[in-house]
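We both want to read discrete structure tokens more fluently, so let's practise on a single case. Once you have written the record down, we can walk along the chain together.
***
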Amino acid sequence: MEALNSIVGAINGVVWGPLMLVLILGVGFFLQVGLKFMPILRIGKGFSLLFQGREGQGEGQISPFNALMTSLSATIGTGNIAGVATAVFLGGPGALFWMWMTALVGMATKYAEAVCAVKYREKDELGNYVGGPMYYIKNGLGAKWAWLGVAFALFGAIAAFGIGNGVQANGVAQVLESNFGVNTSVTGVVLMVLTAAVILGGITRIGAVAGKLVPFMAIAYIIAGLLVLLINIGNIGHALSLVFTYAFTPSAAEGGFAGAAVWAAIRFGVARGVFSNEAGLGSAPIAHAAAETKGPVNQGLIAMLGTFIDTIIVCSITGLAIISSGAWTSGESGAALTSLAFANSLPGGGHLIAIALSIFAFTTILGWSFYGEKCVEFLLGVKSLMPYRVLWIIAIYFGATADLGFIWLLADTLNAMMAIPNLIALALLSPIVFKLTKEFFASNGQSEEPGGSPAE
């Protein structure tokens, strides 16, 4: 196990090195500039379309609203509670600033991903819409790039078991054991049963559950987080000054905090930001490809909200709660750090975090099961769907009872491996994204030619 740890650790150091951070931020910034900062300037248009998108219009399987909720079900998870805390613990308060920067450029990345997903989606043998990086590489870039689509699907199918299964199940098991004394094996079995009840029904059932559960849990968590910030309102100004100061200067050791270099703030801020909002990973467009939408740009405008909601709203509340409450110098890390921040301010705050994390992680398991199975379907065809779902359900138990450290490391590494083919594809397909966007807004953004018909 030690040898495996060191091998994965070495790979992790390479794939999350300076080159990867430049690639993620660079492609996002390139897309944001190419779109003339439209994703930031037109965020109101996105929310307007989201409200209208509760009912599907056009070809697809789930409403645009449920497509966003499915993608949010996969992104709002342990990354928002444990991931933000880990970033602050390892990189200091300045890591939160770099999470924000990742999100601002990530909105353009997420927009481009969804535009390409709907533009180049196909219908499979079962009559379902399928899309995502492997399909926009295949249908948008042509045969000479086919290997890149296969690479993404392979990394995605395996990565799903890390980021979307093992990490989430482990997070739930640990937090329920420490807060309520629930045995990890019991948690594993209960999660298996609940997951099976949803995912065996496919994307329609996943979308329906996500459409109800995600808004409820996100709003409840935001309200609780705002209460913590209200209680610590006198410290908010100081907390924000720490975020901006330590984004560019090394953070000194304080209390149980060991101190961190600026590079650590950037590295953990960007890595945990991507882990949380998944912009650039290529996972979310797999869900958006199934949307009943008028066209690619319509869904892109809705998709970019996922990054805004996940990081600018939810992660900011977690990060500022940890910093303003003073818990960041306690020496705690992960979900325990967030629990401490809430418990210090709200009666029963620790238990509240335990419940929130459990629900967040459960919906992430649902969303990522869909991402993983679509990657496997691309590689092996529709006959692989049911075996994959069964394997997914079984893996939950092992995730719940395994060692957390290695699972985090593996998930983090595979995240980066997924991002590389996707970011290359987005850069190469950017002229198509810019063209479709220009045409959409030239017609005042009122209508769009039906896009995303099955590829010939």
